[in-house]
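Hi U.,

Before I forget, here's the chain from the pilot set. I'm dumping it here mostly so it's searchable later in email.
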Amino acid sequence: MKHDAASPDAANTRVAIDFSGGGAFRELIAGGGRVHVDRPLPCLILHRHQQGAADSLASRVATTSAAYLVWPASDESDARAIPMLEAVIAAQRASFDRILLVSLYDLPRDPSLDSESARLEDYRFVLGASEDAPALAAAKCLASALATIEVDLRLPEIADGTDACFDPAIAGVVEREPALSHIALGLPQNYRRPGEDAVYPQLLHDLAVGIFDALLQGAWAFFREISPHAPPHHRALGRSSFIAAARTVDRKLDRVASSFDFLLSISPINTAQAWESFREGGHQAAPAFHYRPLAIDPELAKRRLHAIDFRLIEDPVLEALFVEKQQEIDQQLTMLQHRNTASFRYASLMLYGPVEPALVAAANDILDRVRPVADAADSEAIDCHVVRQEAHRVIGQYRETCPEFKAQATIRADIAAGMMVTGGSLLISRDTYMKRARLDALLQHEISVHLLTWVNGNAQGLNIFRSGLAGYEGIQEGLGVFAECAVGGLSRARLRLLAARVVVVDAMVDGASFVEGFRLLRKDHGFGGRAAFNIVARVYRSGGLTKDAIYLRGLGQVMALLAQGRDLTPFWCGKIGHGHLQVIEELFQRGLLRLPRVVPEFLSRPAAIANIARIRTARSFADLVR
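Structure:
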């Protein structure tokens, strides 16, 4: 049974809840309360709040839980909430012999503090539990988890609340039902400014996230006490479905993100002509690049972006992912505002970061040790039409096993030679000419990584997994180069190109001009004129883009994961960042993420399997092309 919204009057009568049809139960309670039960669980979070209480930590923590009941503190609301509570308990008892009720409440504030006080409210929890063994086990685990929540360089005191009076509105229910365990947890107020109604937002957020995780650990301990079928991880007790508010936020965020094409907006449309001008001028002056008119007003897009309200998501993990993405989109819009100016470079550093010394050293090592060699025996050159034909063939193969693989390959006259993926489309430059021997590797990079993760992300239920979690591009490009290596197509020239991008980005950040970057590649590293120009043009586009360092960095991240014996499957589920592995694992545990609809076909090739084994043991980038 699934109710995502209902008339408040629906809760005025006795409710029968049936989970046999699957889906969450969600109901409004007349007077300002609501109940949400994600699925049959042995734990229910309760919060009876005071009317008009703003920024309640107890309310925030309760409403992020997979099963909760919140309602105002009044006799009238009690009369409506208690029958709902009994109905939820009855439904949960159909699956579990015992149920844990956790009553959350906000501790009183210290009246001695005022706005000029030099200290915050006490960082103190008050914890009490019923005397049964499962409740005591849950309380012990909860106390241990709470004790580790460091906030503003402080660890909390855990006070004994065994003698504290449990909420009288709940006492009668507990007394009538012997199969109930009960915990009461008083929450600190140290996130509030002394003597004021205002709060410290970051403290409030950090506390809510930490307490929520501690409650999951306590519930998991309870589960293990009452059943041999407890899940393997405490985070599996979190929500297993997206509520309507999360989907609404996701749509609004995606609407802003998809209103502009970032890479196309910052990429020149006259790269071929600029090269001719640069060559004819004797490589003495930086070329003039031309760009597409912006399809949006970045300032108006920012207003829409920051008008999105994340507070109703009721899931701290999703909220964090959305906030990170909001910040990333904001930085992209800032870059568009400063396109083709000196400020663009600094905005780029905020988004992609500088080049770490270790990566520069690795890039220079490649350029020193991996010398260019003559072309392979298969030196047949192919044009954009052959590339598109082969791309359609590969896409068609994926579509045979996954009908949702509805990607398109198109030829464009307004992009530099090569290929790029934007959304669900593979764009092929009209100026593309390449060796046929390189084609399979590049198609695996673009189709079997970039398009495949777009398709899989599109099936996850939220657009953010399709458009990409914040910072996903580094590992995504690393996976693309990994695909090239797996199919035997990572040539010496390609690896040198990736290294050259790193050293030019580093030089650009250090203040080198376009011409100086070009000379660095020509004189110090032996690159041909056109190849050096293409590398430098990518780095200096729009005023200086540090993005091109992420390819080699991302490849290093993939190599490290393989060396550790890690599974790459999470990265095929959508456009996932390297730093999101723990979050993705939690979402898998909760059932919010699906396994990939389709995986790269090259993973099953015998030659690729052997190559991947070699990548696992590679000690350096140079080892990949030996």
